[in-house]
Amino acid sequence: MNSDSAKTGDLTYHFSPSPTWSDEFNYSGLPDKNKWSYDVGSLDDGWGNNELQYYMDASLTNSKVEDGLLKITAKKKI
């Protein structure tokens, strides 16, 4: 096994020397919808496993790109 691979249990993972996907966050506002999406589930069933949290759709109050960073904010909604 070389430095471009790793073994976990019976699986071996191989790593490329160059990224196949990236986002440099050299913009401001909502995350690029061509690269990022939101899994919002259902407010009624908690993703089918009774989760108490709800996942929001695109909104600057919970996800934004600012100063070269992706900022994700958890909000308590009563």
Integer-rounded radius of gyration? 18 Å
One letter per element, helices H and strands E, the order comes to EEEE
Largest sheet: 2 strands, antiparallel
- Indicate the proportion of strand residues: 15-25%
Outline: flat
The helix content is: under 10%
What's the helix count? 0
- Which structural class do the helices and strands define? mainly beta
The first-to-last residue Cα distance is 52 Å
Mean pLDDT: 84
Order of strands across the main sheet: 1-2
- Low-confidence runs: none
Strand tally: 4
Characterise this structure.
With 78 residues, this protein is an all-beta fold. Helices cover 0% and strands 21% of the residues. The chain is built from no helices and 4 strands. The strands form 2 sheets. A two-stranded antiparallel sheet has the order 1-2.
List keywords for this structure.
21% strand, 0% helix, two-stranded antiparallel sheet, flat, mainly beta, two-stranded antiparallel ribbon, 78 residues
List strands and helices in order, with pairings.
Layout: E1 5-8, E2 11-14, E3 63-66, E4 69-72
Antiparallel strand pairs: 1-2, 3-4
Concise description?
With 78 residues, the protein is mainly β.
